[in-house]
Write a structure and sequence with these properties.
With 192 residues, this protein is α+β, with helices and mostly antiparallel strands. Helices cover 16% and strands 40% of the residues. It has two helices and twelve strands, in the order H-H-E-E-E-E-E-E-E-E-E-E-E-E. Strand 1 and strand 2 form a beta hairpin. The longest helix is centred in the N-terminal third of the chain and has 22 residues. The protein is globular. The chain starts with a helix and ends in an 11-residue tail after the last strand.
Length: 192
Amino acid sequence: MRKHTLISTAIVSTSLLLLSACGGGGGAEAESTETSAPVADSVEVTDAWVKAADDGMSAAFGSIENTGSTDATVVSAESQASTALELHETVENESGEMVMREKENGFTITAGQSLALEPGGNHIMLMDLTDPIKAGDEVEFTLTFSDDSTLEFSAPVKDYEGANENYESGDDEAGEHEGHDMEDMDHSGGSK
């Protein structure tokens, strides 16, 4: 009888240990779910606008604010207004000219900070417009972040005299470019 009691006690003890290990609810798995909220949840786009254009190229500007506690990296943008969008930066090339080119690794917005998208600086480049975009229109965008979360926003279209982008010579046959020349670009003006 004693042997039977020992076996029963061992089975009950083992079962309790297994149940507590499996069902714990407050373990590392629950913590990682709480701390891994989508990056897009802590990002907001404000003061967005798009330059009016009949065809070819345009650009989107505004401010991207990261209210979260970790850095947020925008890796791509999409819009039905264009078949090809790129995240662009302004840099000095080898000959000292200011050019715009695709931003490698996307835009990183430091936790608690904002990133300005503006003529002559960082911007979202819309190439190969699908239709004319006229002042008063609204353009819808989707930003994708490094964690694959997304943020949608809308930007009004405005007339603007500056930001007349011209590309430097590059590998245009492959659909790529090195950057576009800022020398012929007027970024001093504002909205009409």
